[in-house]
Amino acid sequence: MSSAAPPASTGYARGRATREEILEAAVQLFGEVGYRTASLREIASRVGISHPGLLHHFPSKAALLEAVLARRDEVDSIALQADLDAGHSLGEAFARVVERNVARPGIVELFVSLSAEATSAGHPAHAYFRRRYAEVPATVRRDFEQLRDRGVLRPDVDPATAARQLVAVLDGLQVQWLLEEGLPPAERVDMPAAVRAFSASLMVG
Amino acid sequence: MSSAAPPASTGYARGRATREEILEAAVQLFGEVGYRTASLREIASRVGISHPGLLHHFPSKAALLEAVLARRDEVDSIALQADLDAGHSLGEAFARVVERNVARPGIVELFVSLSAEATSAGHPAHAYFRRRYAEVPATVRRDFEQLRDRGVLRPDVDPATAARQLVAVLDGLQVQWLLEEGLPPAERVDMPAAVRAFSASLMVG
DNA sequence: GTCTATAGACTGATAGAC
DNA sequence: GTCTATCAGTCTATAGAC
User: Fold this and answer.
1) CATH of the domain at B48
2) CA of B29: which chain A residue's CA is closest?
3) pTM of the prediction?
4) DSSP bridge partners of A153
5) Minimal Cα–Cα distance from B179 to chain A, Å?
6) Which residue of A17, B37, B147, B150 is surrounded by the most CB atoms within 10 Å?
């Protein structure tokens, strides 16, 4: 499958490959300039097709955004679940998500740009991010409640507050990290280390 | 001065009033949809003039953005300094900044939108936010170092790491808070309380 | 100081050929 | 599945009248 196979009469294999390329280019450009400022023409030209060609695969710009978010969710949740299944704590699993993202700055840019943009009510990703920010801190809170019951969480730490703080630290560090682009690595935030340090500061001993 | 005075032959007083109105409307719209998506026509129409009328006061869109940022810096730094002069700790002064911002959601939206947008190298506020994110954590770090020397900071807390975390918590909570708009207040993050809780968790006993 | 008119460029989406 | 051509809308900025 894939690669340089000539377009078959079905056109199917070529179509699949292009769909992936489009999603990849869209992640990149949405990250660079945000959803609203990104143009279908620019995304299309980056994968070597015209913008009506792109619209054959995704019927509208908003549909393309939905597909981008659905794909990120799929990839991330599989990797996260694998880390949890391997016995890592939730905090450590988060740190490993960050570790992977540091290697793919486009993903970090995507979520920083989109979460800020989607803050406004009319944005096509508004509902997505509202759901995400309702669910993620709640999941972390439940995890912290279990840790508290097992005596692992520091007794003076409130699970709900700490969950919010962990998510906030994650998001806030990404902005700092992006704005330090080009600095010598030693002067940039070490995001995975910072996340681990914060998690550790919530636990006993 | 100000108010319903008829346009004098100098046109000066009227001009000053309009400049303030434009800046206010720009803060609002830049916050709502970001700098790039905001249009001069929309800002102009919100203050009841045409867009060439607006461009008489600010020669370009980027100049308008600069003026908005300069004005926010002025207002915020005066208020922050007043709190410090009144004997409040830096952490408490930050919490009070947040307290004021909660009453003016447009300001929170402005900084969340712009800091995310300005992450990309070509953005007209890129240099501004790079400077800001180099200076603010450094100032907090110096403050924490003094607290450590006076035995107020918990001995296991690293000033530099904690400074970064405090700034990150501030930024991250703003995103959470904006995405919880419309929820009953009890379910929304209490940002000032969360900032105070985080600051307190860094101090001894 | 504010306006109308306009230049010149870009946008998302559609029609229809191949 | 991809193209060219095009529609109807948007944008920043400028020219020039009043």
Assistant:
1) 1.10.357.10
2) A120
3) 0.94
4) A203
5) 6
6) B147
